[in-house]
């Protein structure tokens, strides 16, 4: 899959990167750093987790640079503390082209229902076409509409799951997701 996604024939922009951030004075098992480099092609980065705010800034800055600014605050307040010794981070940047592009004229402000029950107005894309669609029932009785939006090349797709009822938490679906289920 990685070869398919990263090949020069692919028009999508995809990059992945990994990093391990360790407490500066943490003694690692001999050979760990070269082994990690062989696996992930990146180095171990040492930070001082006792200065939580500075460590958060360093890691969030790394993530922001490796996602072309799309993720700027991965680690929020309280995500780590002074007892943190190690953090493994994987960043994925993807900018793909839809198999069936959306027209700008089909984008309108609509009401979006947030998980806390509030609503906001956001631009939403729309189009009329034939897409793979199914209905899904979770083991605890929640129904979802599932829609597949393929990217060009048929290798990748985005799946959108919308619950029938507004008050159903996203966790009702994410708690049971697996590669086999998808």
TrEMBL record:
Task: Write the signal peptide boundaries.
Answer: none
Which is an annotated GO molecular function term of this record?
Answer: serine-type endopeptidase inhibitor activity
User: What Gene Ontology terms describe where this protein resides (cellular component)?
Assistant: extracellular space
Annotated InterPro entries: Serpin_dom, Serpin_fam, Serpin_sf, Serpin_sf_1, Serpin_sf_2
- List residues of the Serpin domain: 1-181
By sequence similarity, the record places it as follows: Belongs to the serpin family.
Name this protein carries in UniProt: Plasminogen activator inhibitor 1
From what organism does this protein derive? Oryctolagus cuniculus (Rabbit)
């Amino acid at each position: 899959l990685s070869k398919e996604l990263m090949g020069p024939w692919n028009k999508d922009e995809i990059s992945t990167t990994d990093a391990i951030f360790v407490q500066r004075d943490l003694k690692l098992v001999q050979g760990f750093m070269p082994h990690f480099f062989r696996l992930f092609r990146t180095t171990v980065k040492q930070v001082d987790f006792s200065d939580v705010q500075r460590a958060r800034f360093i890691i969030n800055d790394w993530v922001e640079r490796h996602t072309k600014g799309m993720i700027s605050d991965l680690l929020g307040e309280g995500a780590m503390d002074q007892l943190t010794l190690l953090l493994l981070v994987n960043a994925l940047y993807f900018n793909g082209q839809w198999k069936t592009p959306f027209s700008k004229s089909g984008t309108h402000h609509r009401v979006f229902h947030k998980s806390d029950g509030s609503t906001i107005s956001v631009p939403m894309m729309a189009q009329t076409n034939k897409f793979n669609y199914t209905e899904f029932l979770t083991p605890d009785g929640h129904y979802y509409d599932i829609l597949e939006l393929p990217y060009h090349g048929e290798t990748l797709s985005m799946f959108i799951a919308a619950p029938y009822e507004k008050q159903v938490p996203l966790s009702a679906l994410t708690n049971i997701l697996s590669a086999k289920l998808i």
